[in-house]
Structures are given as C-alpha cells and as structure tokens.
Task: inverse folding
C-alpha cells in the first residue's frame, strides 16, 4: 500500500495525552500492486481500527494525494478526462470509517488535488490549509502546492512553498504552544530564505511532517534549517 501512516503521542502529563495519526498518499483511485481501491479501503480501515482499539487517537491529519484527480502522466487525471473526483469518493467511502466519533480530522490537498479553495471545500468539506491544537502542540497544515489551481491542462501541481504570513499569524495566535509543521511536501531547495531562517531560529518548532515521495524515513533538514 502507498499511504504513509505515522502516529505520535503528545504528552505533557497523562491527563493531557493526545495521540495523533498523520497520513499521506493514500491514492484511493486505481489498482496498484494488485490491490484494488475497495481492498485498499478495507485494509486501511482495518489498520486504523486496530490502532484505535490498541490506543485511541484523538486526531487524524491527512496530508494530501487521496487520488490521481490531476495527473500529468499515462492515462492523465480523472477529473479533467472524465469529470470524476476520486477525492470526493474517498471522503464519502473511506473517511467515515477512518475517524470514530470525537476524533478531530483535518484534510489538506496534495499535488494531485489541484482544486481551488471553493471547489475543494465543496468536494471535501475541508480547507486546503488548516491548523489544529492538540494539548500543548499546534499543528499547522500548510498548502505548499497552492499555485495554478483549477487547471485546464494536466500537470503535477505547482509548488509555492510555505506561506510565511499564515505561519507567523498562527504562531502568534498560540504563543504558548510548541509547533509541528505539516504539508503534503516540503521542497527544501525551493523554499524561501525567510522560511529557512524562520525554521532555524524558531525554537518552538519541534519537527516537520510531509508525504509525497512514498517513503517513510526521518530526514535531517541540514545546517541551513538549524
């Protein structure tokens, strides 16, 4: 399966403990590696049910690429060729089983969901960028592929990097919170100098999470990022 699932516990004291699940690149859209979409849904939901039974999570953060709705290669994306949104199908068929009652959910777009804000909200009920406070930690979900939206031609998305104004506003709004930055992807070579300096100097930032490359590993951001 292609999705990356990561769980973390935020523990200031036991009474405030909140478990957070982060996921990316589910691609609920076609048969991959012999796994049909419906089988993928069953496997994914079964994995999450086991995780919740073992140790209930309080938040589910989804970081993009639920589909190949906008895709530049091979058969091209389903939205421009067929008018089909597998992202909408994911929200209708998968999401209700993935988030038990009381679990906070946030769902941002990836490079394969190049819908503008209005259409994204209509299809998913979420915002392309978002945030969530979990105990003593603020999760900021950035829209780093927010360029050239609602395209009329196939592409793999336009990377625009982190919106520093949004980042500064949210961190100022929650001055007592530690911060985890999330996005579908952080392209460190394309990010702004302002972002590099901010990450290096802002001690409240614990780490960054992203998907996109279908690999689960810890990466050092390097000296530029502190």
Result:
């Amino acid at each position: 399966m292609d999705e990356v699932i990561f769980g973390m516990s935020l523990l200031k004291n036991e009474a405030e403990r909140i478990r957070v699940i982060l996921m990316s690149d589910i691609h609920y859209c076609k048969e991959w590696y012999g796994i049909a979409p419906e089988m993928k849904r069953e496997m994914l939901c079964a994995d999450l049910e086991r995780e919740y039974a073992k140790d209930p999570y309080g938040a589910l953060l989804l970081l993009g690429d639920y589909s190949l709705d906008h895709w530049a290669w091979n058969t091209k994306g389903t939205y421009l060729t067929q008018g089909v949104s597998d992202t909408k199908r994911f929200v209708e068929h998968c999401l209700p089983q993935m988030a038990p009652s009381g679990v906070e959910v946030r769902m941002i777009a990836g490079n394969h969901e190049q819908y503008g804000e209005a259409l994204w909200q209509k299809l998913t009920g979420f915002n392309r960028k978002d945030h969530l406070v979990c105990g003593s930690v603020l999760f900021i979900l950035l829209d780093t592929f927010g360029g050239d939206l609602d395209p009329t031609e196939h592409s793999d998305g336009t990377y625009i990097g982190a919106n520093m104004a949004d980042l500064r506003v949210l961190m100022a709004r929650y001055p007592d919170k530690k911060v985890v930055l999330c996005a579908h992807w952080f392209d460190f070579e394309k990010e702004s100098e302002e972002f590099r300096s901010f990450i290096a100097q802002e001690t409240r930032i614990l780490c960054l999470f992203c998907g996109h490359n279908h690999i689960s590993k810890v990466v050092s951001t390097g000296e530029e990022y502190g």
Notes: The mean pLDDT is 93. The helical segments are 37-54, 78-82, 86-93, 95-98, 117-124, 164-173, 193-201. Strands lie at 4-10, 18-24, 59-62, 104-107, 130-134, 137-141, 178-182, 205-209. The chain has seven helices and eight strands.
